Automatic annotation (TrEMBL):
PROSITE patterns, per the entry: FE2OG_OXY
Name of the protein this chain belongs to: 2-oxoglutarate and iron dependent oxygenase domain containing 2
A Pfam family per the record: OGFOD2-like
Gene that encodes it: OGFOD2
Ranges where the Fe2OG dioxygenase domain occurs: 215-309
CC cofactor: L-ascorbate
Top-level division of the source organism's lineage: Eukaryota
Molecular function via GO: dioxygenase activity; iron ion binding; L-ascorbic acid binding; oxidoreductase activity, acting on paired donors, with incorporation or reduction of molecular oxygen
InterPro entries per the UniProt record, alphabetical: Oxoglu/Fe-dep_dioxygenase_dom, Pro_4_hyd_alph
Keywords: Dioxygenase, Iron, Metal-binding, Oxidoreductase, Vitamin C
C-alpha cells in the first residue's frame, strides 16, 4: 500500500468526469462532452426510452452537467466531510472502529485465509473451501463476518445515517449508503481485510486479474429501502475484483443478477440470479456485468469493496478502455499510480 518513505500517490483517470454517467430513468450509462455530442451519439436510443420532448432533453442536459460538476468537486468535498466527521461525530458502537480482529470474521473465512497462505496452496484446493456460484463466470461465495459483527456494524451505520453529519453518495449509481473512508472505517476495517485476508485469497482465485497485486480499494455500504433506492441497473464495477457482503437487515427480493463479461458479445444472455445471505460475501471480477433486482420488502444493506491493482489499471482504464489520463486525487483515488509496478496480464474476458 505504501513504499518505504513517502506514501504512494494515487490518481483517477480524467474520464471520470465524462464517461459512464448514469441516468436511472432511461437506464443508460452515457458519455458526455456537450449537447451536440449527446444528440449525435445518443439521440435515437434516448428517444426510444422516452426522452422525446425538448423539455425532456433539457432536463437530461441539466442533470448531466450537474453530475459532471459533482464529480469534479468530489475529492475535495469528500476530504472535507471526512475531516468534519472525525472531529464532530460520536459513534454509537465505537468498538467497530477498533482494528479488525479475527473474532469479527466467520470461521469459514478464517479457514480460507489460512489455507490461502499455507505452503502448497493452490486453486483446486481453495475451491474445496468455497462455494462456487458459477464456474463459467468465476463467481464464488464464502461467509465473511459473524452475525454479531454484522449487527454491530448495522447499528453504527443506522446511527450515522440518522445523525446530522454530511453524507456523500456511495458511488455514481446508488444514492443511499455510506462511504467507509469518510466514516473512518478504512484504516481499521477495510485495509486489514484487504491486506491480510483478501489478497492471498484473490491471488489464488484471480491471478490473471491482479488478485495478487491489490494495492488500493474503494469501500462503501449501499442501502435499499422503500422510498429510497430499490434496485440497481446493470453495470460493471470500476475495480479489478469485487467483494459484496450482505449485512442485513430483514428483506425480501433484491437478488443480484450476473451477465457476461462487459467486453464479451451477448453479455446479458441468460443472467444468473444470486440470493443474498446475511454475513456471506460474493466474489466476482469487476468487469462482470451485474445489477440488483427490485427490493420486495424491508431494508437491505450491503458492504461492497472494489479491489484494485494498479499493475492492471495503469495499462488500461476499465471505464474508458484507454490508457488512463492521470489526474492527482485524494486518498486512494481510483487506484491508478504514476509509478510502474510489476505488470500482469489484463483480466481474461472469458
Amino acid at each position: 500500500m505504501a513504499t518505504a518513505g513517502a506514501p504512494r500517490r494515487f490518481c483517477r483517470c480524467a474520464c471520470f468526469c465524462s464517461e459512464n454517467l448514469y441516468v436511472a430513468r432511461y437506464g443508460l450509462h452515457l458519455r458526455f462532452r456537450g449537447e451536440q455530442q449527446l444528440r449525435r451519439d445518443y439521440g435515437p436510443i434516448l428517444r426510444s426510452r422516452g426522452c422525446v420532448s425538448t423539455k425532456d432533453f433539457q432536463e437530461l442536459l441539466a442533470e448531466l452537467e450537474q453530475e459532471v460538476e459533482r464529480r469534479r468537486r468530489l475529492g475535495q468535498e469528500s476530504a472535507a466531510r471526512k475531516a468534519l466527521i472525525a472531529s464532530s461525530y460520536h459513534p454509537a458502537r465505537p468498538e467497530v472502529y477498533n482494528l479488525l480482529q479475527d473474532a469479527a470474521l466467520a470461521p469459514e473465512f478464517l479457514a480460507v485465509a489460512q489455507y490461502s497462505t499455507s505452503p502448497g496452496a493452490d486453486f483446486k484446493g481453495l475451491l474445496q473451501r468455497l462455494e462456487t456460484v458459477s464456474e463459467e463466470k468465476r463467481i464464488y461465495r464464502v461467509p465473511v463476518f459473524t452475525a454479531p459483527f454484522c449487527q454491530a456494524l448495522l447499528e453504527e451505520l443506522d446511527h450515522f445515517e440518522q445523525s446530522d453529519m454530511p453524507k456523500g453518495r456511495p458511488n455514481t449509481m446508488n444514492n443511499y449508503g455510506v462511504l467507509l473512508h469518510e466514516l473512518g472505517l478504512d484504516e481499521p476495517l477495510v485495509v486489514p481485510l484487504r491486506e491480510r485476508f483478501l489478497q492471498p485469497l484473490m491471488a489464488l482465485l484471480y491471478p490473471d486479474c491482479g488478485g495478487g497485486q491489490l494495492d488500493s480499494h474503494r469501500a462503501f455500504v449501499v442501502k435499499y429501502a422503500p422510498g429510497q433506492d430499490r434496485e440497481l441497473g446493470c453495470h460493471y464495477d470500476n475495480a479489478e475484483l469485487t467483494l459484496n457482503v450482505a449485512l442485513g437487515k430483514a428483506f425480501t427480493g433484491g437478488a443480484l443478477y450476473f451477465g457476461g463479461f462487459f467486453q464479451a458479445p451477448a453479455a446479458l444472455t441468460e443472467p444468473l440470479e444470486v440470493q443474498h445471505v446475511v454475513g456471506q460475501g460474493v466474489l466476482h471480477r469487476g468487469g462482470q456485468l451485474h445489477g440488483a433486482r427490485p427490493l420486495g420488502t424491508g431494508e437491505r444493506w450491503n458492504l461492497v469493496i472494489w479491489l484494485r491493482a494498479s499493475a492492471v489499471r495503469n495499462r488500461l482504464c476499465p471505464m474508458c478502455c484507454r490508457e488512463p489520463d492521470l489526474v492527482d486525487d485524494e486518498g486512494f483515488g481510483d487506484g491508478f499510480t504514476r509509478e510502474e509496478p510489476a505488470s500482469v496480464d489484463v483480466c481474461a474476458l472469458t
